[in-house]
Amino acid sequence: MSKPNVVFIMTDQLRADCLGYAGHPDVKTPYLDTLAARGVVFDHAYSACPSCIAARAALHTGMEQSHHGRVGYEDNIPWNYEHTMAGELSKAGYYTQCVGKMHVHPLRNYLGFHNVELHDGYLHCARYGSVPYRESQFIADDYFHWLKQELGTNADVTDTGLDCNGWVARPWMHDEKYHPTNWVTDRSLDFLRRRDPRKPFFLMASYLRPHPPFDAPQYYFDLYSSRKLRAPFVGSWETDEYLKANGRIFDSKTGPSDPELIRQAQIGYYACITHLDHQIGRLIMALIEQEVYDNTVFIFTADHGEELCDHHMFRKSRPYEGSCHIPLFITAGKNVLPDIKSGSSCHSIAELRDIMPTLLDIAGAEIPSSVDGESLLPLTEHPDLTQRTWLHGEHSYGEFSNHWIVTEKDKYIWHSQSGREQYFDLASDPHELNDLISGQEHQDRIAELRSCLIESLKGRPEGFTDDVRLIPGRPYPPTLPSAVLP
């Protein structure tokens, strides 16, 4: 049997619950719902280091964060990994193409892909001043280059006045066909047109949205602007200290303090998601029309979530569900993966590091010994099985720096600067409204999860533990020595 084609749909900053198939009461995603219904949904998938660079390091290398060395957000650190997802698939006979976001360094580092058509969105480090390798987004980013060709040399995504990390929302100012979400689909369709039909292909359609700016076309804003939307979740343990201090700052780590601006952020975020869904629908239809859908495996996920004003916070990097819980499903055409249990859910803990070994398993390729992740392919046949019972997550994030252990039913959090601990019973409290860290009935379980974290942190250069207890206040840089390779 010939190797299946693979379409890997990657999104940015899409939280797990903001999809129709996940039961969200407001967000509409009919095409993704269709794909999910035909495959296996991994409803306990997480991003162990939930921000763009660190999450993508896990994705592209299959390594856990202490091995790939990126435990926070830091630009301009070269990516020099021996084994990568695309590199190994290329060795296995696939033609490998990425369209959209890579967020690596240097910008045109292909990480083993045969070709990359790049759009990383607005990256501050590559937009002003000099950068290593003398790269600039104005030159290196294919979408920005194309947009200037189409609309003139002064055309730029910043014409909306929106920032790439802010909660301000407004509709896209140009025709929809010029939107970066449409561009990723357009270039993916062009790849399908010009591919060699004799070779299996791996297409990574890497969409930037719904990462800010929240600038979907007007049609998608109109879908949500008159709806009554579910309010953000705010835990009884949270205070409004940071909201009072920063709730008027558009790019702060908190959400806005103005309820109307919260609503506008939700409208903009949901609009970007439905716009994304419809563009994925275009891609699906093209695969059907070109008669390759039935021979294709689909994987869908995101690099991390978006807090979207839950617990008064915005963006990602924190240990709560809106930030670190991500969507993930695997779907296959009728001629491939014949034993997949379509229409089922798997509750085993999954992580981005599992994507690379899953793809190599699908391709029948050898999985390098450097890979820490586990193939999810067996779970598509037996979704009732459990491969990973707990996961260690973390993020270097200043005073919000954190480590956490999550299982199918609960979560333990340690704030590494202050030493504060939290415990949530996710089975009964999926939105983390009640912190049970002080409850006597949970102390044995908390001690068990704390011991898992101590075990995970043994030998780390930061000195978070003496192998017996956790030690707060240790220096916690976003990059470990293991990330700086020759």
Automatic annotation (TrEMBL):
GO MF: arylsulfatase activity; metal ion binding
Q: Keyword Chaperone on this protein?
A: no
Q: Name one Pfam family in it.
A: Sulfatase
Q: Which UniProt keywords apply?
A: Hydrolase, Metal-binding
Q: Does the keyword Hydrolase apply?
A: yes
Q: Which SUPFAM superfamilies match?
A: Alkaline phosphatase-like
This protein's GO cellular component annotations are: cytoplasm
Q: Which domain of life is it from?
A: Bacteria
Q: The Sulfatase N-terminal domain covers which part of the protein?
A: 4-365
Q: Which InterPro entries match?
A: Alkaline_phosphatase_core_sf, Sulfatase_CS, Sulfatase_N
Q: What is its EC number?
A: 3.1.6.1
Protein family (similarity comment): Belongs to the sulfatase family.
Q: What name has this protein been given in UniProt? A: Arylsulfatase
Q: Which organism is it from?
A: Mediterraneibacter catenae
